[in-house]
Amino acid sequence: MILYEYPFNERLRTYLRLEQLYRRLGELLTRAHSVDHHFALTTIFEIMDVASRSDLRLDVIKDLERQKNLLDVLRDNPDISQHMLHQVTRQVESCVSAINSQIGKTGQTLAENEWLIPIRSRLGIPGGTCSFDLPAYHAWHNLDPRYRQRDLEDWAAELTPLGQSLDLILQLLRETGIPQRVVAEQGLFQQAMPAGRNFQLLRLRIDRRLNLAPEISGNRLMLSVRLLQLANGCKPQPSSEDASFELTLCA
After folding, report:
1. Torsion angle of C-alpha atoms 28, 32, 34, 40, degrees rounded to 10
2. 3-state DSSP call for residue 5?
3. Percent of the chain beyond pLDDT 90?
């Protein structure tokens, strides 16, 4: 099954973009090749660019506080594991504390790092990090991989509180959804959104063997999924065949 996610607001779009960047960074940090370390550093800068929004930190804190309030409502509910509830609540509180302890924007210390500034400025230039442009950066790539990994882990640590907070927010959000099996008749599925619910995220799973990709659009009133038939090297075309997939709406 292939999973697709569709955010219903701009805040969730930003969260999902950052989640993808954090996942890429986590993968690259485990590798030892200098090319992987170059793209790890590039990813750190991308996270800084996305996270530099002045309202992002406030949005994250608000979402964490919202989740804490929802968890507090479940206290003493006999159908809820109070041990698990306590653990999740402590995670939320820990994330809030870590975010609040940071001064300035996420990654501000890295943005002011005199060694990183010229590298960041030249990454926007195709081939701009050649040895004749950035000899110190070239020398860094020729260090023992362990030293490069140590540096990357130190820099990535500046971004860890935001990444952990986003992981927790998205995990809790995804757990609110109940999967349902639906059918796109002649490649098209439409559904009126349930009244009184403020859905934030759509999750769609479809069998990879169908060779279909969803084109999703939606708002608070209506959801539409058009399935596209994939063809190697060609523009995807609307499918005219009936196909089923799993749909989950998360609030």
Report:
1. 20
2. strand
3. 84
Residue 133 CA from chain centroid, whole number? 33
For the chain, the domains span 2-172, 177-250
Instruction: Give 141-205 as a DSSP string.
Output: HTS-HHHHHHHHHHHHHTTHHHHHHHHHHHHHHHTT---EEEEEBTTEEEEEPPTT----EEEEE
pLDDT at 14 (0 to 100): 97
Contact 82, 75 (CB under 8 A): yes
pLDDT of amino acid 121: 96
Looking at the DSSP assignment, which residues form a beta bridge with residue 42?
none
* Regions in the chain scoring below 50 on pLDDT: none
Q: What pLDDT score was predicted for residue 80? A: 82
Q: Which long-range contacts (CB under 8 A, 24 or more apart) does 78-85 make?
A: none
* Cα dihedral 28, 31, 32, 38 in deg (nearest 10): -10
> What superfamily does domain 2-172 belong to in CATH?
YacF-like (1.10.3900.10)
The model carries a pTM of 0.93
How far apart are alpha carbons 218 and 156 in whole angstroms? 35
Residues 7 and 13 sit within 8 Å (Cβ to Cβ) = yes
Nearest-10 Cα torsion for 87, 250, 3, 208: 130
For domain 177-250, say whether CATH 2.60.440.10 is its number: yes
3-state secondary structure of 10: helix
Secondary structure of residue 237 in the 3-state scheme: strand
